[in-house]
């Protein structure tokens, strides 16, 4: 049975997913169209094992779903609104000052 997560949990899951560049690239690729893992691995230039680990994380975060297709599995965004949210985030990032860099949490305490 699926339940709707509280707002803070949803944002934390989305943030966790976006914290890794490979997961960001996967989400952006799936924003365009559903894909099979082998095709995604080739498109992104990562090993299938590494891609599989990131897809598992994105599934656990509730952002992607696996759709069985015979002997293969296709991945897609769990909700089409996630694609719109990614677009909104990409547009918002343009407003960030380009002369500043977000450092790792242990270096400065941000991010």
Automatic annotation (TrEMBL):
Residues 3-100 form the HTH arsR-type domain. One of its GO terms (biological process) is response to lead ion. InterPro entries: ArsR-like_HTH, HTH_ArsR_DNA-bd_dom, HTH_Metal-responsive_Reg, WH-like_DNA-bd_sf, WH_DNA-bd_sf. Pfam families: HTH_5. Keywords: Cadmium, DNA-binding, Metal-binding, Transcription, Transcription regulation. GO terms for molecular function: cadmium ion sensor activity; DNA binding; DNA-binding transcription factor activity; lead ion binding. This is HTH-type transcriptional regulator CmtR. Homodimer. PANTHER family: HTH-TYPE TRANSCRIPTIONAL REGULATOR CMTR (PTHR39168:SF2), TRANSCRIPTIONAL REGULATOR-RELATED (PTHR39168). It comes from Streptomyces coelicoflavus.
